[in-house]
Amino acid sequence: MKMTMEYDTEKVAEITMALLWLGLHDVNQFGARAWKGFDWDALNRLHEKGLIDDPKSKAKSVWMPAESVEYARSLFEKYFGLSGTQPTA
Q1: Rounded CA gap, 1 and 50, in Å?
Q2: Residue 50 CB burial class (10 angstroms; 0-12, 13-18, ≥19)
Q3: Which residue of 8, 40, 80, 83 has the smallest Cβ count within 10 Å?
Q4: Which helix (DSSP H) or strand (DSSP E) does residue 50 occupy?
Q5: Which residue ranges of the chain lie beneath pLDDT 50?
């Protein structure tokens, strides 16, 4: 079933980026990989912005450079963090 309502694609991109942070693995000083089980259009928009590597591959995860990992963490904190708590790396 395809959604027919209009929605804010920028908000969807931010939430997708925040949730990619939740699924990080293989983290190192250069970046990390994140599981990519999200809407393809949202992932493509993130790729077009240079935030993630091309999601069109057989890999089940997508590469995020270190700057994108930090951006995703800040978005996760913004949307899902509890007020008064300190984020962990």
Answers
A1: 29
A2: exposed
A3: 83
A4: none
A5: none
